[in-house]
């Protein structure tokens, strides 16, 4: 609380510090992270890392134990790129286990899922040709398409691909796409987040074939 009060009106715990307060990650050593709703300079304070965020509105903040803190959804968004993929995954899973809203299925990105967003970012980072996203082939909507190479990549989140019916649907989908002359690469959340080099190598190799 002292760190938040020290940063003035509208300040709130954020990033890794918020994740710890919300029970998404274990507490970490180091500076306490606080977001303030302004871009103007504030005097640095020892032991506090200030994030100036003029674009954040009141809906991005809540309170826990009477301490102002970013919401679970905002905290998870802030953690992306600030912690390791494994830590981000742990925070998301913990939020889901607690029944908290993660904000990951709002559709705010062009793609339909957070997993697709992560894969797109991976492709950009490794300078792969940009795929078409969420496009129709026959009766199916595919996640990613390299049309000239006739390659489809499907990113399979467990939430939407669990169970026997989903298993059968996925195989039926693959048969249809292959009958139309497309190669399919299926990737899981674990593969995209924990073995990105192997993922990129597999996709790059498929694009060359």
Quick recap:
With about 210 residues, this protein is of the alpha/beta class. The protein has helices spanning about 1-5, 15-20, 70-80, 85-95, 115-125, 160, 165-180, 190-195, 195-209; strands at about 10-15, 30-35, 50, 60-65, 65-70, 130-135, 140-145, 150-155, 185-190.
Report on this model:
The chain is of the alpha/beta class. The protein has 2 domains: 96 residues, no CATH class; 95 residues, 3-Layer(aba) Sandwich (Endonuclease, Chain A). The protein contains 9 helices and 9 strands. The strands form 3 sheets. A 4-stranded mixed beta sheet has the order 6-7-8-9, with helices on both faces. A 3-stranded mixed beta sheet has the order 1-2-3. Strands 4-5 form a two-stranded antiparallel ribbon. About 8% of the residues have low confidence.
Helix-strand layout with pairing:
Elements: H1 2-6, E1 12-13, H2 15-21, E2 32-36, E3 48-52, E4 61-64, E5 67-70, H3 72-79, H4 85-97, H5 114-125, E6 132-137, E7 140-146, E8 151-156, H6 158-161, H7 164-179, E9 183-188, H8 189-194, H9 196-208
Parallel strand pairs: 2-3, 8-9
Antiparallel strand pairs: 1-2, 4-5, 6-7, 7-8
Helix pairs in contact: 2-3
